[in-house]
Amino acid sequence: GMNQPNQTPPPTPQVQYSLAHNGQQSGPFGWQQLQQLSQSGQLTKETHVWKQGMTNWALAIDVQELAPLFAPAAGGPPPPPPAAGGPPPPPQ
User: DSSP strand E in the chain: where?
Assistant: First the structure.
């Protein structure tokens, strides 16, 4: 119902999302894990995600909190080239 007590809950230190892919559920994952999963291609805009408090699974692209994982937004400028002298990407 709408009778939520209007005291704001303390901020959770760690984001925890579960993922669903091809009917397989995994997680929950913290933010750093989600970043790694998105970089390795296991978490995409079409991946279904869920966290405590959500009524239903949602596409990752529809979850505001996950938007930074898929930045830059479509139509934005391409990401800048990596700075010279940086480490190469880790092996897959």
Answer: 17-21, 24-29, 48-50, 58-59
78 within some domain: no
Using only C-alpha atoms, the chain has a radius of gyration, in whole angstroms, of 16
Please give the chain's pLDDT, 92 residues, in tens.
566 666 665 555 578 999 998 889 999 999 999 999 999 999 999 999 999 999 999 999 999 999 889 875 455 566 666 666 777 778 87
Task: Check which CATH number belongs to the domain holding 38 and give it.
Answer: 3.30.1490
For residues 49 and 31, is the Cβ–Cβ distance under 8 A? no
**What domain count does the chain have?**
1
